[in-house]
């Protein structure tokens, strides 16, 4: 049955809480049980932690399933599996027993294979000490491949999806190597793209590559049966770099204090001062708004755009940041009324689920 894409915030949130989130938790329950069977203790621990700590990523990404117009379950199956790979690998690299870029590159080959039905599965752990995951990562990759294999029009978006997937993988390799190599690697990487994106700094470009939203949008529209070359190109240019960049910059914004304590890389730290950061966030908000008007279902994409701002800024971690009140006020104002709606909606959601963090 074809289902219309919700055009207002109340309808969207009703459908998300009633249909999308329960389906996400159902998929995650399967992967939790699957992760519990991983023989290697370290891999099992990181697989379970990545789901427990980052459920929000699967919930948020799966909102795109409403674009599949009735194929929500297949879209959610893909999104949850792909995001689970992403979060699991992020844990393996972040809390790694290895600092080897070859290891990180090989692990992230799984994300390219997941986007390429027919690609043979590889030994993704070949450069690390921990090896035996009982087929967990292979099963995640196969789940993604199966959904895409059954999607008739996937060939139309495959090139764009893999391009975004490769950029994501490059970022994960460069940002997880030993500390004194990270910035030079990221800066050299950006030099290859600087002519195309002269308005971005190296750290903003890096942020733009760190989101999976463009891939979820491409796949969900593909499952709707309404995909063609014009739409696939428009999705790529509407989501990359600005929508994806806004997503990840917000993610880094709320993690500033945490990352400083842990000594982790945070792209917001490279702005010269608070006012520059505020101006650049405003720029990303405005450019995102401009780009998504070119998409079908523009009101939906606008809600995602404003929802990102509202939901991230409603996180409890924001209250610990200096100048947060004026920053939040400015961002909500420039983002639109729905951002404020999502901001208070998310604050209420946190109150009902006290343990939840973004």
The gyration radius over C-alpha positions equals: 19 Å
Helix percentage range = over 70%
Number of DSSP strand runs: 0
**Structural class per helix/strand content?**
mainly alpha
State the low-pLDDT regions, or none: none
* Chain oligomer state: single chain
Order of helices and strands: HHHHHHHHHHHHHHHH
Strand content: under 5%
Per DSSP, the total helix count is 16
Shape: globular
Query: What's the overall average pLDDT, rounded?
Result: 94
Structure description:
The chain is an all-alpha fold and 358 residues long. Helix content is 70%, strand content 0%. It has 16 helices and no strands. Helix 4 packs antiparallel against helix 5 and helix 13 (274-292) runs parallel beside helix 15 (324-335). It is globular, with a radius of gyration of 19 Å. The mean pLDDT is 94.
Quick overview of this protein structure:
This protein is mainly alpha-helical. It is about 70% helix and about 0% strand. It has helices at about 10-35, 40-55, 55-60, 70-95, 100-115, 135-150, 155-175, 180-190, 200-210, 215-225, 230-255, 255-260, 275-290, 300-315, 325-335, 335-350.
Mind sketching the topology for me?
Blueprint: H1 9-36, H2 41-53, H3 55-62, H4 72-94, H5 101-114, H6 136-149, H7 154-176, H8 179-191, H9 202-209, H10 213-223, H11 229-254, H12 256-262, H13 274-292, H14 298-313, H15 324-335, H16 337-352
């Amino acid at each position: 049955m074809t289902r219309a894409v919700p055009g207002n915030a109340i309808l969207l949130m009703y459908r998300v809480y009633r249909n999308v989130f329960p389906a996400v938790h159902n998929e995650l329950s399967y992967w939790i049980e699957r992760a519990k069977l991983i023989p290697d203790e370290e891999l099992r621990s990181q697989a379970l932690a990545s789901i427990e700590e980052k459920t929000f990523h699967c919930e948020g990404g799966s909102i795109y399933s409403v674009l599949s117009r009735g194929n929500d379950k297949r879209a959610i199956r893909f999104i949850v599996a792909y995001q689970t790979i992403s979060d699991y690998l992020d844990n393996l690299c972040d809390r790694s027993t290895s600092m080897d870029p070859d290891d990180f590159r090989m692990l992230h080959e799984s994300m390219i294979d997941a986007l390429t039905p027919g690609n043979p599965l590889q030994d993704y752990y070949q450069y690390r000490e921990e090896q035996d995951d009982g087929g967990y990562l292979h099963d995640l990759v196969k789940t993604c491949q199966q959904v895409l294999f059954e999607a008739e029009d996937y060939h139309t978006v495959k090139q764009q999806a893999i391009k975004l997937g490769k950029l994501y993988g490059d970022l994960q390799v460069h940002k997880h190597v030993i500390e004194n190599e990270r910035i030079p690697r990221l800066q050299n990487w950006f030099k290859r793209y600087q002519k195309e994106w002269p308005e971005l700094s190296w750290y903003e470009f890096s942020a733009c590559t760190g989101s999976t939203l463009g891939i979820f949008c491409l796949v969900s529209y593909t499952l709707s049966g309404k995909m063609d070359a014009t739409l696939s190109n428009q999705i790529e240019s509407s989501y990359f770099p600005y929508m994806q960049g806004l997503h990840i910059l917000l993610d880094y914004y709320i993690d500033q204090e945490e990352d400083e304590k842990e000594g982790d890389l945070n792209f917001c730290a490279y702005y010269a001062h608070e006012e520059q950061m505020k101006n650049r966030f405003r720029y990303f908000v405005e450019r995102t708004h401009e780009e998504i008007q070119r998409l079908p279902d523009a009101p939906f994409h606008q809600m995602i755009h404003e929802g990102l701002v509202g939901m991230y800024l409603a996180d409890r971690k924001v209250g610990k940041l200096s100048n947060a009140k004026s920053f939040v006020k400015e961002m909500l104002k420039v983002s639109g009324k729905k951002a404020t709606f999502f901001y208070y909606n998310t604050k209420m959601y946190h109150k009902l689920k006290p343990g939840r963090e973004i």
